[in-house]
Amino acid sequence: MTTYGHWTAGAWRAPEKGHYPIVNPATEEVVGEAPESTPAEVADAVAAAQAARSGWSRTDPRERAAVLDRIADLLSERRGELVPLLQAETGATLCVAKSLQMTPAVDRFRRYARGALEPDVVPLAPSPVPAGPPAPGGLMNAAAVRRPVGVVGCITSYNFPVVNLAGKVGPALAMGNTVVAKPAPQDPLCCLELGPLFQEAGLPDGVFNVVTGSGADAGEALVAHPGVDMISFTGSTGVGRKIAETAGRSMKRTLMELGGKGAAIVLEDADDKVLESAIGAVGSVWSFHSGQFCTAPTRALVHRSLYERVVTGLQRYAGALTIGSPVDNSTIVGPLISAAQRDRVEAYIAGARDQGARIVAGGSRPAMRPGFYVAPTLIADATPEMAVAREEIFGPVVVVMPFDDEDEAVRIANGTSYGLYDYVFSADTGRAWALAARLHSGNVGINTVRRHPETPFGGFKKSGIGRDGGSFALHAYSELQSLVWPS
């Protein structure tokens, strides 16, 4: 067990308020201690980022790219040390921690090493401008240039702490910004480990800083600090709303990836191959980090002619999954992040049962002691008005609902406050493409739950503000400056 300090200005800083324990969700044992932050300590981290801002923003993009490449190298070299810690603090299975957390984090730093070298000047065609009171006429030249925003506060989620932070820090550093990171309270240890790793890679002191805390105080202090120019947040819609209110008072830029309630629409023309794909996709809610991901297709909307067939297929899928310790390679379904989250998920299941929904699989706590486990749960015959069908649960729970025509499917899919990621399964991809235009969602997968790394990622409605991913992330972490001059 390691006791950590804050990572500020290239050094560990002992916290004034001491530490709080980080608990392994599978064993309920303490695996490390993270520092509690005071507003003054958050301010110190912001001051360090401000002091490093000018130098890093003027660093040659080739050098920024080289540093990001070296970060990727070191992450790859140290994954053997970091993956066990990541598993211990998140409860992720080895597959999730290694293949879907560390590997994508390495890939993201590589991607934004290249991104640092992407053109940041958009030339504009000359335009004749008539004479006027301010100035004589002439042929005016212009260009739009991307500039760093400044100090970026990166507040990350507990489900994928390292890869989520990499997706923020990579493009932010590539564009010449400096960063104060505030990981989620539940699992900040690997994020703290990144401080000295970045320093070893050649990142100047103060460009990347990390503060943590067991509650909301550290994040609130970071959002409210006048020296922070932008907040990038991944987490719940409720917290995102509070961040937006605070950031708006000082006109901070925000990038927010918030909650989701993904709908997987299975049309009546789905053949056996498409149905198999749809069942596997919806089953990923259970098999991928116990449903703790915002793009999860947690609502299966199935044409009535295929409804019972899909319910039966999902029931079999759930029954074949192994629940167990994340360090056991045979485990597919591990624990949830905390006892509080387990209890919250169980309350949603109980509420659905009380309202008359049919619990087809799961629905009771598995015989796993210790650990914060919830069995893969399949709920059928729910109505769109039920809480399980409208609210983000963030656990291994799937709700299946029938529809009779496309209009009804669209009404149900669009009938929540979220709009992050939906899916359409059809033997006719042209039909699915047309249906996607009717969905109020920032992302739509057609016959797949796989994502494309270069697409703009973000949500409609209360699922977020702004887009990242690929070159769009470089846009998100920069401001446009217009330059005009006469011929």
From TrEMBL:
Annotated keywords: Oxidoreductase
Ranges of residues in domain Aldehyde dehydrogenase: 12-482
One Pfam family named in its UniProt record: Aldedh
Alphabetized GO MF terms: oxidoreductase activity, acting on the aldehyde or oxo group of donors, NAD or NADP as acceptor
Oxidoreductase recorded as keyword: yes
Highest taxon in the source lineage: Bacteria
UniProt key word Iron: no
Family under the similarity heading: Belongs to the aldehyde dehydrogenase family.
Name used for this protein in its record: Aldehyde dehydrogenase family protein
